[in-house]
Design a protein that fits this description.
Blueprint lengths: L2 H11 L4 H8 L6 H13 L3 H11 L8 H16 L3 E9 L4 E13 L3 E2 L2 E3 L10 E8 L7 H9 L2 H4 L3 E4 L18 H7 L32 H14 L4 E5 L23 E4 L1 H12 L5 E11 L4 E9 L4 E11 L9 H21 L5 E8 L7 H10 L13 E6 L7 E7 L2 H11 L9 E5 L9 H6 L4 E6 L4 H5 L12 H20 L35
Parallel strand pairs: 5-6, 6-7, 7-8, 11-12, 11-13, 13-16, 14-15
Antiparallel strand pairs: 1-10, 2-3, 2-9, 4-8, 5-9, 10-12, 14-16
């Protein structure tokens, strides 16, 4: 028995009532001989780094709707077919926006000094149609303004922004971090989090759950939201013929997170770039000191109308006597555009492809069909996985035929760190099974598994399955530099991947995939009576507790 098992089982036996149910289920059968072969294949013949190289160096970045994303999806299918997988295909879904790529961006300060600047383009904005040289204006907006305050502020600024390059917003003060986040998760913290008797809620990046005096401020209806302010400022700059908008990256050590124009309409914004905080601050100080600052900016962006149709990449290993039942695994293939999307999420894709490849390479014959799914549109709101779940499975309230034969979905989407635990949507028995399946890999860092009842989407694609009432399995990983440096930033490149960690993750997931595909029964789910209600749609009033009707998301 592993150390994990020796810690878990006595704790379970100590709890009256629940222990009888868990013991009656019996220990999960583990094929240790297959696990040994999985470890050897993962260690000695891994394809992860080669897959990562192609997805990042050849096809990165992979913004949804872009030709890079489609080409990467086509390559993954071809590669999995080469490995012997079946039924490789692209499945279309409606993105509803044109594709977009930045092809060139240069920015230089040319007065009162000469220097290169570090910047990224805001996605779904137009380019400059050639180099633009102009004086810089700095528009420091009022904080959390009312409509009247913002209107008054902008009223006399038209002349100041016309034919200028405009820096928008105050400089973000980024203090030195004297307490950097740990690269590894603490074992004792994880053991408490995944305690099967009394699990502690996970503490996600950003701090503990909100309580009295903590968490985000309640919205003030008299104040404009940040998005409303941004939209009105964009419209003001367009109307008054500003040449370029510059936003502050607002992070340390040259990090830039470049997201998108929320309207996806280039006519509603001027060309927009995000400058690293260090450069934005320097220019702001020069202007504040009374010096005239001039820049030269050249941005080339290209739009792709065909990007309105996007894709999920699908491939399978066909099962045997239970081939009609499906165990899925995957991660999102799309990325943001500031870098090549290595830790978010090319490495997750590479790990999941590798986990399935390992099973094919060692020649096992899974009873259930194993299906790899590599999603598009995750960064814009889990769009690809939501479309897939709606098309193939429906929901607990309105199931489609495939709903009954779905046996679980494993998801990786938290960077390069090794897998440390799992959370499954379903009853406690589902978590027990996963806990025992993963237990032989405690030596690689796995700690435990827990169950969730939440059907809210958000964060990653496993929650698209949870929302439908299906067993989505999210895998928790060591953070390494994910939240601090690589997540959505211009530093998210191949070099930031820890090869030893991703090989360990692939071995653990391959074993879990194999054992889920070989069980006599599918992973347990909530019964109809136990199924949690879906959350209300945004802005909707929740249904009363006694009402049999539920407001669907």
């Amino acid at each position: 028995m592993s150390l994990l098992g020796s810690r878990v089982i006595p704790a379970l036996l100590a709890v009256a009532g629940s222990a009888a149910v868990l013991v009656a289920a019996g220990p999960e059968p583990i094929d240790h001989a297959v696990n040994a072969r999985i470890r050897a294949e993962a260690r000695d013949r891994s394809q992860i780094m080669q897959t990562l190289h192609v997805l990042t160096d050849v096809y990165g970045p992979r913004l949804t709707g872009s030709p890079n994303h489609k080409a990467a999806a086509e390559w993954t299918i071809a590669e999995m077919k080469r490995w012997g997988f079946d039924a490789g295909r692209l499945e279309e879904w409606d993105f509803g926006h044109p594709g977009w790529l930045n092809e060139r961006l240069t920015a230089h300060v040319i007065a009162p000094v000469k220097d290169a600047l570090v910047a990224e383009a805001l996605a779904w904005t137009n380019g400059t149609n050639g180099p633009v040289k102009a004086q810089v204006a700095h528009l420091v907006l009022p904080e959390r303004p009312t409509q009247a305050t913002l209107t008054a502020f902008l009223a006399d600024k038209a002349a100041a922004v016309a034919n200028r390059i405009v820096m928008v917003g105050a400089v973000t003060q980024v203090p030195v971090n004297f307490s950097p986040a740990p690269l590894r998760r603490d074992y004792d913290d994880l053991a408490a989090m995944f305690d099967p008797v009394n699990p502690r809620a996970p503490q996600f990046p950003g701090g503990p759950a909100a309580g009295p005096g903590r968490g985000p401020q309640a919205p003030d209806p008299s104040r404009l939201t940040p998005r409303q302010v941004a939209e009105q400022v964009d419209a003001f700059l367009v109307a008054n013929k500003a040449l370029v908008r510059i936003n502050d990256g607002g992070r340390d050590h040259g990090q830039i997170r470049a997201f998108n124009n929320p309207s996806f309409d280039g006519a509603k914004t001027v060309p927009t770039i995000i400058l690293r905080n260090e450069d934005f601050g320097r220019l702001a100080r020069l202007i504040a000191a009374g010096r005239t600052v001039e820049l030269e900016v050249d941005v080339v962006n290209r739009w792709y109308p065909e990007g309105r149709t996007s894709y999920n990449a699908i491939a399978e290993i066909t099962g045997t006597d239970k081939a009609q039942e499906v165990v899925m695994l995957g991660g999102h293939l799309d990325s943001w555009h500031a870098a090549t999307g290595a830790t978010d999420n090319a490495v997750g894709v590479a790990v999941m492809m590798e986990a399935a490849r390992i099973l094919k390479a060692i020649g096992v014959k899974p009873r259930r069909t194993i299906r790899v799914a590599l999603w598009g549109g995750e960064e814009q709101g889990l769009l690809g996985s939501k479309a897939y779940v709606a098309k193939h499975f429906g929901t607990a309230e309105s199931p489609l035929p495939e709903y009954a034969t779905f046996a679980g979905y494993l998801n990786v989407d938290s960077g390069t760190g090794r897998v440390r635990g799992a959370t499954v949507f379903g009853p406690d028995e589902a978590a027990r099974i996963l806990r025992e399946i993963f237990a032989p890999f405690e030596d690689l860092g796995f700690v435990g598994a827990t169950a969730t009842r939440s059907r809210r989407t958000g964060g990653t694609d496993s929650t698209s399955f949870n929302a439908a009432g299906l067993p989505g399995i999210g895998l928790m990983q060591d953070p390494i530099e994910y939240g601090s440096y690589t997540w959505h930033t211009n530093l998210d490149t191949y070099e930031r991947v820890v090869e030893a960690d991703v090989k360990k993750s692939a071995a653990m997931i391959a074993s879990a995939l194999y054992h889920l595909a070989m069980r006599d029964e599918m992973l347990p789910r909530f019964t109809k009576a136990e199924m949690p209600e879906p959350p209300p749609a945004p802005g909707a009033t929740p249904a009363p507790t006694a009402s049999p009707a539920a407001t669907r998301p």
